Amino acid sequence: MLDDNQDPPETSLAEEAYRALLAEIVSARLAGGTVIQQRRLATEHSVSRSPMRHAISRLEGEGLLVRTGKGLLAVRVVTLKEYLDSLAMRMLLEPSAAYQACGNINADALAALSEELDAIDRARDPDPEDVWHFDDGLHLTIARQCGNGFMEATIADMRRYTTIFERQAKSVRSKPGVAEHRAILDALAAAEPEGTRQAMVRHLEMVREGVLRNY
């Protein structure tokens, strides 16, 4: 018998399959335009077709999988316009989120993020996965701690699109925005809401300029 707080096995497997596929899409291991083959993916992830079907359906509902002209299901190709539109939404929301999160992020979390950034800065050629891990950690921590669940969810959704585009276009700098990220962390540590907001504005503007310059 299942514990009252325990998910049914099929539900847990579907959630695991969803998270695994989402990670592959966001990281561009499943590149835009890749046709989805349910049976192959189920075999690769060692699950039955039922939980994989649920995971695929969920990703289609979120717009990350789309139907092609031939009716096949494929990974969405994020266009430059979609990228810029998503980034524009982030530029509207994230500075406010940074302002509101200031003072809500504990010192240990900020210290851990600072150590990650230091390691990236010291490395001659940092591992791109370490760079993405830090970037996700900083931006999503700010979103979680802004105190607005709708803002948090929208920022996370928009970051999916911008991350997919950047990773597929390989437009990320080897040490992306170290100085910009340091300014955000310093302002958070000093509990300066307006300084944090301004630092986030500068960072996102630099991201936009960098992608347009290198596209």
TrEMBL record:
Organism equals Martelella radicis
Name this protein carries in UniProt: DNA-binding GntR family transcriptional regulator
What Pfam families does this protein map onto? FCD, GntR
List the residue ranges forming a coiled coil, or say none: none
Keyword tags: DNA-binding, Transcription, Transcription regulation
Tell me which InterPro entries the record gives.
GntR_C, TF_FadR/GntR_C, Tscrpt_reg_HTH_GntR, WH-like_DNA-bd_sf, WH_DNA-bd_sf
Q: What are the recorded GO MF terms, alphabetically?
A: DNA binding; DNA-binding transcription factor activity
- Positions of the HTH gntR-type domain: 11-77
SUPFAM superfamilies the record matches: GntR ligand-binding domain-like, Winged helix' DNA-binding domain
